[in-house]
Amino acid sequence: MKEKYYDILVIGGGAAGMAAALAASEAGAKVLLAEHASLPGGVLNRCIHHGFGLGYFGEDLTGQQYAARFRDRLAHSPVDVMTDTSVLRLFPDRTAFLSRSGSLQKIAFRQCILATGSYERTMESIPVPGTRPAGIFTAGCAQGLINESHMDIGERILILGSGNVGQIMARQLVQAGKTIVAMIEQNDRPGGLPRNHRECLEAYSIPLMLHSTITRILGEERICGAVVRNLDTGQEQTFSCDTLITALGLIPDRSLADSLAVGGTWPDWLQLCGNCESIHDIVDSVTLAGERAGKAAIKGEI
Length: 302
What we know:
Blueprint: E1 3-11, H1 15-26, E2 31-34, E3 50-52, E4 61-62, H2 63-75, E5 80-82, E6 85-91, E7 95-100, E8 103-114, E9 118-120, E10 136-138, H3 139-147, E11 156-160, H4 164-175, E12 179-184, H5 194-202, E13 208-209, E14 212-219, E15 223-230, E16 236-240, E17 243-246, E18 250-252, H6 255-258, E19 270-272, H7 283-299
Parallel strand pairs: 1-2, 1-8, 2-5, 8-19, 10-17, 11-12, 11-17, 12-13
Antiparallel strand pairs: 3-4, 6-7, 7-8, 9-18, 14-15, 15-16
Helix pairs in contact: 1-2, 1-7, 4-5
């Protein structure tokens, strides 16, 4: 199999990956950006709300607008962008297998930047008895179904966890005429940024139950309710709902890097950046991390 060579292979086309690819290309490197989706942008493509770009662009943009600006920069750059492409494996000899349109391609590179983002914790990560009927979504999945696929996920919605995406989705659902039965949080304060607490929970009077968690899911074919326990008193309350959204946090996606780890460390030609490295609260810091990774790769500092 004939190999195609690049100075820098960037895996993941979200905010970090696009920024890294552009920074490396602007410094003169031959760069390949591999993205598994049909459109670069990552989770930004789901985000129709404002609050993006205040630090980086000095403007209040939606996530989709933020992503579009970087896609435009990519379109006017020498970066090779391969969408609908999965990187199957990285090898110690600085090669990778890529799958696209049913065909396999081998790529050789000098440096690799992993910008694969993160994935959401699901209900399976916590010991909640009961069935697993339809109507249970992670916050990111719900965001994608509503904002990208334009689907209606339900009317009476219970939210477990109070992270940024959960709060933002709660606000959007209230604006769409849905009922947020309650937002359930096990800690003594809501998660996420203070501005989301003000602009989502407080501004829309979304009921928040602290020191609480779900102890049982009710329903067979479709969720019809959940039992919520106060962790201080032990008192339980049953809530009627047709939808449950979980916002239980994010886990960095390092699966490609883990296969290369020796003694807990990765090869010196591999760098992790963005949410793949550590979870960020705002996209501006993810973008800056990507730019630093791209510049460091050029200098061989990774």
